[in-house]
Amino acid sequence: MFIAKVIGNLWATRKHRCLNTYKLLIIQPVDGISGRPTDKPLLAVDKHIDAGIGDMVLVMDEGNSARQILEDRRAAIRTIVVGVIDEVTEGKESVRYH
């Protein structure tokens, strides 16, 4: 799992049927305290979290776990948003996002 910031939405007129009812987000992996990018942006599915642009989110990046959340063992998915982050604490540092 990792922390990311939602930086955009993705709309697709055609996509795999297992993704038809889910929101697709463009996320930027970041350091939870500094907010600095740690990797390249990527695509993630949002099933129930309803994250939006600017939200800091907790992301699971493992296909089997993501498929279990979608309850579809054949889903073409690897990365899924599993929560919106309110606060990150590391040692004595803490950052509140909501």
What does this structure look like?
The chain has 98 residues and is mainly β. The chain has a single domain (2-96), classed as EutN/Ccml (OB fold (Dihydrolipoamide Acetyltransferase, E2P)). It is built from one helix and seven strands. The chain has one helix at 63-70; strands at residues 2-10, 23-29, 42-46, 56-61, 79-84, 87-90, 93-96. The strands form two sheets. Strands 3-2-1-4-5 form a five-stranded antiparallel β-sheet, with helices on one face. Strand 6 (87-90) and strand 7 form a beta hairpin. The mean pLDDT is 93.
Key words describing this protein structure:
single chain, 98 residues, mainly beta, OB fold (Dihydrolipoamide Acetyltransferase, E2P), five-stranded antiparallel sheet, two-stranded antiparallel ribbon, 1 helix, 7 strands, 8% helix, 42% strand
* Unreliable stretches covering 5 or more consecutive residues: none
The CATH architecture: Beta Barrel
Along the chain, the helix and strand elements come as: EEEEHEEE
In total, the number of strands is 7
**Sheet with the most strands, sense and barrel status:** 5 strands, antiparallel
Our measurement of the CA-to-CA distance between the termini, rounded to an integer number of angstroms, reads 20 Å
Number of domains: 1
CATH fold group: OB fold (Dihydrolipoamide Acetyltransferase, E2P)
Helical element count? 1
Radius of gyration: 14 Å
